[in-house]
Amino acid sequence: MKPFLFLLAVTAFAQRVPWTTSRLIGSPDPTPPYRLTRAFPQVTFKEPVFIAQDPLSDRLFVAEYGGRILSFLPNDPSGKKDLFLELGRGISAFSFHPKYSENGYVFVFSHADLKAGARKGQMSQIYRFKLDPAGNPPRLDPASQTLIIDWPSGGHNGGEAIIGPDGYLYVSTGDGTSGSDVNNSGQNLTDLHAVMMRLDVDRPDPGRNYGIPKDNPFINTPNARPEIWAYGYRNPWRFSFDPVTGQPWVGDVGQDIWEMIEISSKGSNHGWSVREGSHPFHPNAAKGPTPFTNPIVEHHHTECRSITGGYVYQGNKFPELKGVYIYGDYEYGKMWGLRYDNKKKKVTWHKEFLDSNVKISSFGVGRDGSFYALDYGTGEIFQLERRPPDAPRPAFPRKLSQTGLFEKVKSHQIAAGVIPYDINAPFWSDGAHKERFIAMPPKTQITFDEKPDQAWQFDDGAVTVKSFSLDMEEGNAATRKYIETRVVVKQENHWVGYSYVWNDDQSDATLVAANGLDKTFRIKEATGATRKQSWHYPSRNECMFCHSRAAGFVLGLNTGQMNRADQLQKLSASGLFNKPLPTTKLPAYPDPFDPKADINERAKTYLQVNCAMCHVDDGGGNSPMILGYRTPLAKAKLVGVEPTHETLGLADAKLVNPGVPASSVLLRRITKRGEYQMPPTSTNRVDTAGAKLIEDWILQLPKNAN
């Protein structure tokens, strides 16, 4: 750390000089035209996954993932919830028979018996229940439970069961695995995974509770399940029928880097797992008997991580959205609308119109035109609203000098109250030097967590800052120039990232456009040769690809990284934490390149810092490996495990082949740039020191490490 920064740090830590100069308010981008606001604040649910309105009344019904369906009256201020069904198994969705007023039938999609624990032997099941005629409030008669169909579950199970406009029951299913279609079900018509079934539940065949429609597409295909109507899905999470065309719109959750919106049709093949959307996944795997159908829309994981299908809107509350298919994303809380010309077979309009912090598990439509969204995390119901005009706000800073973070940008002198910090194990950034700061408005605090890899939580208004610089002559600090400053801002409980590109005379930096930027610098190497170094300034979406919900949105601000010298004690003494530090010894990451430290701990730290933002639960990484620092190696699904994707031409390929670096895909990906590189973004140069660390670690692993 520079001497003047150290002095500033001591002062700021000692008495917490308030940061009062923030200008990072609002957004440089156009305000989204819609927002989600809390509906029915009198009720909350536990892990809600589906919502629908009672065909016979104003009641709303909500399914909880754990196995209950509850109903409530929207205008009842008491928040009273009435039990509609206690299934005793997990529920993904339910639907009313079109003749519900006559027959009282409700179909329930159950993905597993959650009480059974292990998935082995588990079954996904579709049940039909009948309304109890004596129920008041309404409830389903448990004695009427009828199993329509079942098939093995085991991971991504879908799904939904809805009577279509032709009177048949359509059931969507996932590939039934925890990842990568390890059972090769996507293109396999001999099982009921990764398909949409079409069943005649009103005219069952002898010996079962459904019939096979005579025009199902694979009824005469040898060994194919005759129930199948379409196939090649990974995890169709929510589908609905277009009220005009009658076709089902499907939100298909991807795995590697793509999320898909698909329109299904008789016999359509949506490609999984030969493809993910329109992109290769297992390109050499066997293909199904019908050609691939491309998605209507694909979203890269930089903007969408877990798609939630929606509805073609036909209500009067938002006439401007009539005919628009509205859908969203579970991880990022975004929503989009699109118009599709069914005759020309193309999208004519597509727009993101909402950004929220809601974990959208499902949507619902009310008869009054309301459009609802469920928050799986908080258990709340939200509704779509037009965003009212914002109160006048200062223009978002287009120059770094306007942010309020620096007293003097040219000399990189930070403003009063901005706190420098350092970490134990930096992320690889193509050899750039980095300076880091926290900026917290007055009275805001940090929620401290003592676990080494658990991100701290920040109050609204918090800003994290990182400035990058490169030596224009390798090893000569006198030639060092700032090239980028990144800021990540928390507003309205939502993190957003921005980048500023420094100008050539180092007097200021300019806000990078929303879609990012690439520049090339000429670096004089120690040998005297000159190389061209590409530098990527991330788009707004790319910022949050790494600063993801799974990673806690902030990177490097955790106890394992920040516990160095007396840094934590000074932060605590300044009142920045919301509670005193524990008196016990706190964990700290080792320097990954300190040869005196344990190599296993160094390797775990390196993987945590450079890989675990994706390769953790719900992180979006396309491999089952879990690389969090606290994950024991035996449970990391890493050592001795065969890759689920490319072997990259390696013989006896394993993710990590103990003792054999040359057969370890993890190492090969670290040493590649371009296709198949790791990390997949933010770097154009190989981290040779990091690669050597991982190579040495693999070499010393015992052959029985797996």
Would you kindly provide a written description of the structure presented here, covering whatever features stand out?
- The protein has 706 residues and is mainly beta.
- It has 3 domains: 1-26 and 393-589, no CATH class; 34-385, 6 Propeller (Neuraminidase), CATH 2.120.10; 594-706, no CATH class.
- Helices cover 9% and strands 30% of the residues.
- The chain is built from 8 helices and 38 strands.
- Strands 29-30-33-34-35-36 form a 6-stranded antiparallel beta sheet. A 4-stranded antiparallel beta sheet has the order 1-26-25-24, with no helix packed on it.
- Helix 1 packs across helix 5 (567-573) and helix 6 packs across helix 8 (688-700).
- The longest helix is centred in the first third of the chain and has 13 residues, at 3-15.
- It is globular.
- It starts with a helix and ends in a 6-residue tail after the last helix.
- Mean pLDDT is 92; it is low at 1-13.
Write the layout of secondary structure elements.
Elements lengths: L2 H13 L18 E6 L8 E6 L6 E5 L3 E5 L9 E5 L6 E4 L3 H4 L1 E6 L12 E9 L8 E13 L7 E4 L5 E4 L22 E5 L28 E4 L4 E6 L6 E5 L5 E6 L11 E2 L2 E2 L16 E4 L6 E6 L12 E5 L4 E8 L4 E10 L4 E6 L5 E5 L5 E6 L19 E3 L4 E2 L4 E3 L11 E7 L6 E2 L9 E2 L4 E9 L8 E12 L2 E9 L6 E3 L5 E8 L5 E8 L2 H7 L12 H4 L4 H7 L25 H12 L54 H6 L17 H13 L6
Antiparallel strand pairs: 1-26, 2-3, 3-4, 4-5, 6-7, 7-8, 8-9, 10-11, 11-12, 12-13, 14-15, 15-16, 16-19, 17-18, 20-21, 21-22, 22-23, 24-25, 25-26, 27-28, 29-30, 30-33, 31-32, 33-34, 34-35, 35-36, 37-38
Helix pairs in contact: 1-5, 6-8
